[in-house]
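Thread: quick sanity check before group meeting

JM: Hey all, I'm pulling together slides for Thursday and realized we never actually wrote out the predicted structure for the chain we discussed last week. Dropping the sequence here so it's in one place. If anyone has concerns about the input, flag it before I start.
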Amino acid sequence: MLKKERYRLFVEYFSKNQPNPVTELHYSSPYELLVAVILSAQCTDKRINVVTPPLFERFPTVYDLAASNPDEIFTYIRSVSYPNNKAKHLAGMAKMLVNDFGGEVPSDLNDLQKLPGVGRKTANVIASVIFDIPAIAVDTHVFRVSNRLGLTNNARTPLAVEKQLIQFLPKATLGMAHHWLILHGRYICLARRPKCEVCPLTHFCKYYQSGKAALVFSKTAKVAKTKTIKAVSIVKQVKDDANLQADENIEGLPL
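JM (edit): ok, ran it. Output follows.
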């Protein structure tokens, strides 16, 4: 199947079945989304959505956050991954927004990437979600799913994936495609055990058609079988030991 056809089928399916995808991060302003995305690096959206309400209650504006310090911020985000670094990033980001951008989140990708804690992925998320700029952020889900589907070839870095997706996806779908790929990777195309048996994209998925999915399923089934056999063996051994102990106790009783 030609790559152009894969892209057509990809866009066709999600445009029909998920026409208005949105981020699962909770936010009510550009400032809040920026904070949430910085915190979400190598952490789940579910965890971030637990952390941010008290954080935003204490720091409702970027000015409040800028007036704080990493030590205080840390106490609100200690349960996320790399809290020390992220606390420093948030403090530095807030101060730069206030001092260099008048307290407003910039729309320019280069300006966004000047902020502490903001790399290309985070900048693309903000540009796409907040400012509706055609951009696609590549995280671990986007990287994995686009490769498995066959939307990318030999793309070994996030930037290479981004360039190939931008080249073939219709410009108007870039922001939506980011969410399509993330959500598909989060709930169906899992890293270790993709749920190919319920995936609606197998008719054009390069990974599935190559037979790799069947191999993964077979290995997973063997591992599960081995664990089951071991568990049964352990239970049997426990029962045998218990019976032996009971027999010994009976033999020790006076007649």
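AS: nice. Residues 212-251 form the longest helix (40 residues). The chain has 13 helices and no strands.
JM: adding both to the slides.
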